[in-house]
Structure formats: C-alpha cells, structure tokens
Amino acid sequence: MEYDEAVAQLRAAGCVFAEEEAQLLLADGREPLALLTRRVAGEPLEQVLGWAAFLGLRLVVAAGAFVPRRRTELLATEAIRRLPPGGVAVELCCGVAPVAAAILAASPRAEVWAADADPAAVALARRNLPAGNVVEGDLFAPLPATLRGRVDVLAANTPYVPSDEVRLLPPEARDHEPLTTLDGGPDGLALLRRIASVATEWLAPRGHLLIEVSERQLPTALEVFGSHDLDPGVARDDDLGAVVVTGQSTVLRRS
After folding, report:
1. pLDDT digits over 15-72, tens only?
2. How far apart are CA 95 and CA 119, in angstroms?
3. Cβ-defined contacts of 179-184 (< 8 Å, 24+)
4. Is 13 buried (19+), middle (13-18) or exposed (0-12) by CB count in 10 A?
5. Do 240 and 74 meet the contact criterion of CB atoms below 8 Å apart?
6. Could you give the residue ranges of the DSSP H alpha helices within the chain?
7. Which helix (H) or strand (E) holds 203?
8. C-alpha of 4 from chain center
C-alpha cells in the first residue's frame, strides 16, 4: 500500500485529515490494507488504530468503545487543577477512563477511581488505569462507601446529546459507538441531573463537581447545580470548543 494511494482513498471517503491518517495507518505495523478498509468504511480512526491521544497519553480503545474527544481535555485539566496534593478524584461515566488516567499521570500519589456501567468500557479503563481503581456499575452504586464525603474532585463526561438529535451525529459516532454513551435524554442532561442531585453526599467539604456540557445547555446545567448545594461556575476553552459546568460543594458539615 503506497502513501499516495492511501491518501486518495481516505479523501474520497471524506476524511478531512487524510494525510495525517494515512501516515498513522501505514506506520501501524499491521496489514495496512485491512486498516484502510475499516477506516474508509467509516470506523473511527482511533478504533482502527486501537488507541486515542489524550493530553499526551496514548489510551487503549477498541471497536464499539466511546472514543475520547479532544474537547474533554478541558474537563481533565480542570480536574487536575482543582485536585489537592494526595487528594481523591473520581471519574463517573468513565468509558476508557481518559480523565482518570490524565489525573493519575499528573498526580501519581492521588487516590483515583473510575466507574462505568458498561463491562467492555470497564475492561478498557482497567488497561488505561492500571494503578487506579476501576469499578463496574451505575454511577455511584459501585463506589465503596468509604469514599462518601472524601471526594475532592468528581468529574463526568456524561452523554449529553438530546435523544432526538442522536440521528444527526456523524456516522462515525452514531454507527460505531454505544448509544448509551451518546444519548443524554430529552434535553441531554438526564445523567447530569442524577449526578448533581447526590454529588454533595460524596464530595469533601469544598469539593468540586465537573461535567462537560454544550454551550446551549449551560444555563440549565448551572441552574441544576445551584439547586443542589453546588456553587456553580463555568470553564471554557474556545480552541477545543469545550464547556465544563463546575460546582463547588457548599455543604461544610455533615450529619
């Protein structure tokens, strides 16, 4: 397989970064034609390669897994910035655990946990977070009770595409990633509401909840946070096209 031929096929398939993708596919070391065929058929590049770049890390992904987006790097950097030395961090809806892995890479002495309901995602997360704690189950359910009231940073990239807009997503996402990682309910904020409603039970005093949202969802997300003892705020990165709603717990005493 020649480079120019690979570029031509990728361009014809609509790949915007055909040159860069061709280089990655040809440098992979496996059968380039088979990889190119998968990519031209619409499979996400990261699933074809078996890895995704995220904040300088190379994370393991696989067919059928949600691919970490670059915009989620803002969620990770905000989590890292807020985590005290030796603190406790949790990533919910972790997928392959990009945020947890980035936190642990930046703060090796932190206590880092990640949770997801999908067994396949959990298996990949355990490969990306070998020194962390990855548990399987719905949101907070699989976390040990000993974390209650101790979490300094709670981060989540919840699915936030409104249900009736999933069909508008690019085929790469719609056809190759689990629906549960994309569909966020009627307004895209179903899981955000569930997390915010109990977050302060798990957060340490002055602990932080961080959830990625879209710009148009921000007013509602801020209102939800504010109604659950969370002092709401916003972090943005225009270059990444990323928005994170933040909330610092105002619950200072616990019964």
Report:
1. 889 999 999 998 987 888 999 999 999 899 999 999 999 999 999 999 889 999 999 9
2. 10
3. 180/117, 180/118, 181/66, 181/93, 181/95, 181/118, 181/121, 182/66, 183/159, 184/158, 184/159, 184/160
4. middle
5. yes
6. 3-12, 18-26, 32-40, 45-49, 73-82, 98-106, 119-128, 171-176, 190-202, 218-226
7. strand 203-213
8. 34
Distances (CA, A) of 11 to 15, 31, 238: 5, 20, 27
- Asked whether the predicted pLDDT for residue 253 surpasses 70, the reply is no
Token representation of residue 136: 């399987």
Own/partner pairs, 214-220, CB within 8 angstroms, 24+ separation: 214/160, 214/188, 214/243, 215/243, 217/160, 217/187, 217/188, 217/189, 218/243, 218/245, 220/187, 220/189
Tokens coding 219: 């007013």
How many of the other CB atoms lie within 10 Å of CB of 226? 14
> CA geometry: angle at 202 spanning 196 and 206, to 5°?
85
User: Do residues 68 and 57 make contact, with C-beta atoms less than 8 angstroms apart?
Assistant: no
Question: What is the spatial distance between Cα 63 and Cα 76, in angstroms, rounded to a whole number?
Answer: 24
Phi, psi of 61 (to 5 degrees): -130, 170
